[in-house]
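User: Hello! My lab partner asked me to get a predicted holo structure for this protein. The small molecule is zinc ion, SMILES included with the sequence. Please write out the structure tokens.
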Amino acid sequence: MSAWQYAIGLGLALASLGAVVITPFFLTHARTEHDHGPGCWWCHPRLPRRRQSR
Ligand SMILES: [Zn+2]
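Assistant: Hello! Below are the structure tokens for the protein in complex with zinc ion.
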């Protein structure tokens, strides 16, 4: 089943790549001490496509 191995490898590669990409951003954001306000989607994660769509 080389196809499964390829799919799993590709998934792991994408996951590791995504983690590598967001880690610096996460650390940088975590170090900032000022309040980002309710508009910050990172401090206040909210799913898109909610009832209130502006
Ligand atoms: Zn924030």
